[in-house]
Amino acid sequence: MAPSLEAVRPIALAEIEQARRRIAPTIIHTPLVRLELGPGYPDIRLKLENLQPTNAYKLRGAANAVAMLAESERKPGVWTISAGNAGQGVAYAARRAGVPCTVVVIETAPASKIERMKALGAKLVPVPYDVAWKALDERAFPGVDGTFIHPFDDHNFIAGHGTMGLEILEDAPDAAAVIAGIGGGGLITGVASAIKAHKPEIRIWGAEPQTAAPAALSFSAGSAQVFADWKPSFVDGAGGQSVFPRMWERMKPLVDGSIVVSLEQIEHAMRLMAEKVRIIAEGAGALPLAAALTGNAGQGPIVAIVSGGNLDLKKFCEILEATAS
Known about the structure:
This protein is an alpha/beta fold. 43% of the residues lie in helices and 15% in strands. The protein has 13 helices and 10 strands.
């Protein structure tokens, strides 16, 4: 049975600004670079969150969430559920705080993410995807103790992600749209909370793979939906089996919709970044660029959030080779 939770409330701009000061010693203000594609393409800038210390944006939320815990909550250790990036973020923040960390990890997570979590001192409990998704909803897992940090439905976690929105406003004040991959919805909610507070005219778009697009389905239906045809893919950091009702409540006032792209379009975006800007992006990190290239978010300027770069190099090389033609 899920524990009693506080009601969903908007992420206040003041909370995001406080989070920025709080996590400044842990995260970096990541670069925002223009992707030069020539005439006929949208004006796209890449927000390179793959350059964070854990090579993924989740460190922002994890650092803020762990820092906001009371000493009595931190002392027994922390745990989370993850396909890898949130696990790395929480493990990194826990190590800095000097407390143990356990990650209930999806067993198909890339080896690079598994090894990084181990190197950060996390105890890993591998489980199938369905089991992990159920545990995310229940916020409990048998035999795992400590304070649970939800990897997306956590107010302080989301406020940490909002700090990225502040950076985007500073580095791309002319942005017309921002695109973020949607997994659980924490990233896009945090970024949108910061951006809409300053410039409500900027459009905020999600991006999902066609194999796992419950947010697009939810925006179409006007309510939180389950994606019945969910299939696993190399895009392990985005595309859930459903949109949690609490996350729908957070997203619906802030997000303009979700753009669905094929796995082939994502692979093309991964190759394009490697060729044009020498950037290694995982599948979820390439989602926003793939969405921007469809033209559905307009001609820009568009900021595409490269959420992470944690994938096995062998898989990355296979994708580059497969898209060479």
